[in-house]
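Hi again,

Forgot to attach this to my earlier email, sorry! This is the prediction with adenosine-5'-triphosphate bound. I've pasted everything inline since the attachment limit keeps bouncing my files.
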Amino acid sequence: MSRTPHHIAAPHPVLSVERLSHSYGNAEGGAPILDNVELVVNEGEVVGLLGRSGSGKSTLLRSIAGLVTPSEGELRFIPDAAGNPRSVAMVFQSFALMPWLTVQQNVELGLEAQRVPVEERRRRALAAIDLIGLDGFENAFPKELSGGMRQRVGLARALVVEPSLLLMDEPFSALDVLTAETLRSDLIDLWGDGKLGISSILIVTHNIEEAVLMCDRILVLSSNPGRIAAEFRVDLAQPRDRLDPRFRELVEQIYARMTQRAAPTAAALPTHDLARPLPPVSINSLAGLIEEVEAAPFSGRAPLSELADTLQLEIDDLFPIVESLQLLQFLDVDDGNAVLTPRGAAFAQEDVDQRKANFRRTLELHVPLARHIRTVLDERSTHQAPARRFRDELEDHMSPDFADTTLRAVTEWGRYAELFAFDDDEDRFSLDDPA
Ligand code: ATP
Ligand code: MG
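Structure tokens for the complex follow:
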């Protein structure tokens, strides 16, 4: 009888990732998404991978699952003490169920691929379905199930193949808050009881609290390029209490670490750089955050974690706003605090027209792409230019997706500031017609 993973004393590695780098697409201008990533997952561990959107979390997980072939580096699965090879299975954010198959058929899929005989397949699928709390739903189709139940099917399908390492890519983020909480604690309970039949879990999330709730160890992935920037151990017994001061402190520390990372990257880019990707952040979000920081109780300086709570935002939603405000120099980030600059503080006090003028000066000073569009429009006799022209230019430096998002961000900002006009139907920039 093997011991449950939790009682193994000396760490025994399941997976070792060495100097893993990856860039998508062609070599020319293909900026690395992941750069020299090193990590080890041991038996009995739940490891969390935290990082901002686009930092390469899914790419890393897909590499480990064998769905992406990394450009460089090594992935090693280390056989267990008895010499058995390791295996992996993945749970996706989108559940990824086959709509035309029943719950049981969906769960059996993984076993079919392994050519497990029909009878054994049936037995194991029913056991996994039972374990994960889907008893009675064997013959239901995915569309008849709630989101939470569907993700249970996703979990059962991964568990039924008895993987050594269970990979989960934001498995709860498509669920409502209460459903996610229930599924999370069910999973932690099953894991704690040693019932899952797996050695380790590697879970990707951008939710710090989720990571602190579930994981023994948390790795923070930096962005552009993705590297392991920090590691945190969570030495709190399960079940964990979000209100425990030690829980809160750890959440704060991770927040601070993740934002500390954000500041230098934004600042390190030269301001003449046209090709800086911009997150799609609306004027309302920018203004809303400035107002929140300026008002009581913060009065110009707000701990980011409290700010996120006040605004009911998740870190992944807060970061792009903060990053844009840093770029526009309305805000600095100092040791996990958002601090308004004089220009930011002024913005908070100004009326609509003053704000537009302030924003326009800011764009001209700090957003080279906005300035560039304006210059092109000024120089053309028609004072018009197709958006395609700028999109093509951006695509020399970034992926089409990023180029599109960046251009959309700058379009909204420039329109608001009345730096230029934009016609959605014609997909064309122009200078505002004097009526
Ligand atoms: P999120 O939190 O939004 O899920 P992530 O950390 O999982 O983000 P990835 O999905 O790994 O990030 O993407 C990292 C970067 O690689 C992004 O810039 C993304 O646009 C790019 N990328 C992802 N998949 C591909 C692909 N198949 N081809 C080209 N670029 C890709
Ligand atoms: Mg992802």
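The domain at 283-348 is CATH 1.10.10.10 (Arc Repressor Mutant, subunit A). The chain is about 45% helix and 20% strand.

That should be everything now.

G.
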